[in-house]
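Let's practice the habit of predicting before peeking. Look at the sequence and jot down your guess about where helices and strands might fall. Then scroll down.
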Amino acid sequence: MPGLTLLGLGPGHPQHLTCEAREVLSQASELWVRTRQHPALAALPPSLAVHSFDAYYEEGERFEEVYQRIVEKVWELAQRPQGVIYAVPGHPFVAEATCPLLAQRAREANMPLRVVSGMSFLDPLFTALQLNPYPRLYLVDALLLADAHIPPVPPDVPLIVAQIYSRRVAAEVKTTLNTLYPDEHTVSLVHAAGTETEQVETLPLYAIDRSPHIGALTSLYVPPLEEGTSFEALQEVVAHLRAPEGCPWDRQQTHQSLRTHLLQETYEVLEAIDTENEESLREELGDLLLQILMQAQIALEEGAFNVNQVIQGIYRKIVRRHPHVFGELRASSAEEVLVNWEKLKAAERAISGKKEGLLDGVPQTLPAITQAQEYQARAARVGFDWDRIEGVLDKVQEELKELQEAEGAQRVSDEFGDLLFTLVNLARWKGIDAEAALRRANARFRRRIQYLEQAAQRQGRSLAELTPEEMDRLWQEAKQQE
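Done guessing? Here is the structure:
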């Protein structure tokens, strides 16, 4: 009768073969193994015919393709009258890609399935490190980590990176880990855990790809960073503040009461950006993140949504609106990206049934200059724009002339607004953030006025007591110092 047996060979040493595995292998005449690169195979009965899929690894370019080919071949073998025994290193369901796929097929086809458990590589790994994985530990595949841009784990939790096959993989893993962990972070490479050649190397993270011992049985242990370095840890702190045993002030807050704080923290972030103060920016981004998490926590308590739904919503939106990154669409310039972005948003509005116009998504509470620049950018994405910057410059001159000729307070105000609006458009054409440019101009003006005040104070005078000529001379000095 056809059938599928999935057998774990243990971490390496023949002594780690289970009694059940030895019994199955002693009665078998044929065995298919994912790879011959496993020490336990040397202890198998000489009469046992062993076939491997090592050639698949040599022929395939990607592990996913190799694993799929193995699954197809094993499944074909399982249809035979005698079925198939398929053996893998460690445990069939621990850090093993092929066995779960085969087991699922067997269940769907009602094929007899036997799983012969084996000691996983984790048990001797924990022994080698003298590590208790309880109460929490993350296990990540090296290839998954190597392909990532950011480690998909909180850095305040211990991490095991399994199956670091080569120094190239180690280098790619290091690059990803470096986005969260410092170069000097002490880690451990564990080679051939559970075998006679077991070795533990303790070294800084930056040196892991220099180890000469890396091979098919190498794993990496990354100790956690200090407490409070993960998003989840901050989320827990915020929830604690809002809990019955938390802070009375925080518990009283609502979406509306925190509105001013949210706006203030946003402006403090902008100020840190404008002053190019990286330390201040780090701190202010944290304050802004706290406001976001507080708003999400209040929504959770009210049964509206939770922060994970917030994250999932923006995750899906980013992926959906970047088909040139996550899909088949191609975009060769930022302008093409923005045009396509507007088309995607229009399609989303059509699907949802929302009757939104081109400018309806721009908040009415934005600062006027920022709002103007966003209006103009959106109009440009659908082709409502000048062909050349000369048209914008001509419009500036036209609006300035109309302002000079305007009479009456309301007309003057309107023409002044039109001139400002056109200047904002000129900023867009020049690739300038008009709001930020004006804020920097304000900051320069403030610094120069302070210079004048300090110069007057050194003379025992007030700023108002300086003559226009003295003010102009000091103003030029302030400009030269900048």
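How did you do? Strands lie at 4-8, 30-33, 49-52, 84-88, 113-116, 138-141, 159-162, 186-191, 199-204, 218-222.
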